[in-house]
Amino acid sequence: MDFRLTDEQRLFRDTLRSFVDKEIVPVAREWEHSGRYPTEIVEGMKQLGLFGLAVPESYGGLGADTVSFGLAFEEISRGWMGIAGILGSHSVSCFMLARHGTEEQKRQYLPDLATGARRTGIALTEPGAGTDLQGIRTTARRDGDDYIVNGTKMWITNARYADPLPVLVKTDPSAEPAHKGMSILLVEADSPGFEVTADIGKLGYKGTESCEVVLTDVRVPASQLLGGVEGRGLQQALSSLETGRINIAARSVGIAQRAYDEALNYARERTAFGRPIGEFQAVEQRLAQIAVRLQAARLMTYWAASRMDDGVRMDTESGMAKIFASEQALECAIDSMRIHGGYGYSTEFEIERLYRDAPLMSIGEGTNDVLRGVVAKALLAGKATVR
């Protein structure tokens, strides 16, 4: 049992920490409130090779271990969680392509995705189907050497930059159970009939776009069927969301860390009744609770990540980490806001952004309520144990 990072992981974290402190922290509040797209930060992430986190070295990526993968999302989210979203959807898609794509698909896309010359995302959710992906209505009808795709996708991160965009479709709408008729197609951005129609307004999670995507009679070559076999789309997506849950858990740790940092500094610097507020017991109690929640969330997240690096199935572990860390992020943000008092509600302080960003962590990559059911079913079936 070793809770220490390796020398390589520590160097990676320190490099990221320096980048975040120099390039993200100074501009995050202003750019987030103005709605400015973080182009310069994206370029910096390209230079660090971060778009290749989930791309194997043989295709030009970093081929990062899962703990390092989590470290990247923790550090970036400490600076600005919305930036992590740009990298998150891209990485989930890269992981899916690397694991399930044909050799031709990997050679065609992964080298450019690794450098950020191409970027991607993943189009699963629809207006009437989010958690219940088997309820999607987007269809892909075979027509000779092509599929003809029709449907609408919602909440698609990176939609305006994704090329290709993996789209979950029904290649056999009559299949029972429904997942046997679901596939993923790699849709090129310049395909006629493919349109990003709207950016969705959000409480938080700004810096990256979340869009509606409409596909109208879009012709997609059959060679763009992920893995080359119909009926495997849902399994391909769900296996990739295991890494997505590590990503969300690590983002949650980053939010909690920043909430702790802001609370600690404020408790030391703010005075009331002639002394720092950190000397008052009520503030001490809140600060200690933030620290406890933060460290517990971090340990659970990197425990789940290390399990994935061990090569074992870890849908239960990643689900547990995502549930716990996301809820701690919100609690830490709230307690940090309370320590700040009225200033915590001000847009001139960082904490209000953390408070707006944190709730999404309990929704993204599977809602916490659904994931509790997943964890419970695995425990009851004996597929996972806690001991």
Automatic annotation (TrEMBL):
Keywords: FAD, Flavoprotein, Oxidoreductase. GO terms for molecular function: acyl-CoA dehydrogenase activity; flavin adenine dinucleotide binding. Residues 122-218 form the Acyl-CoA oxidase/dehydrogenase middle domain. Residues 231-380 form the Acyl-CoA dehydrogenase/oxidase C-terminal domain. Its cofactor is FAD. The keyword Lipid metabolism does not apply. PROSITE patterns: ACYL_COA_DH_1. It comes from Pseudonocardia ammonioxydans. This is Acyl-CoA dehydrogenase. Belongs to the acyl-CoA dehydrogenase family. InterPro entries: Acyl-CoA_DH_CS, Acyl-CoA_Oxase/DH_mid-dom, Acyl-CoA_Oxase/DH_mid-dom_sf, AcylCo_DH-like_C, AcylCo_DH/oxidase_C, AcylCoA_DH/ox_N, AcylCoA_DH/ox_N_sf, AcylCoA_DH/oxidase_NM_dom_sf. Residues 6-116 form the Acyl-CoA dehydrogenase/oxidase N-terminal domain. Pfam families: Acyl-CoA_dh_1 (PF00441), Acyl-CoA_dh_M (PF02770), Acyl-CoA_dh_N (PF02771).
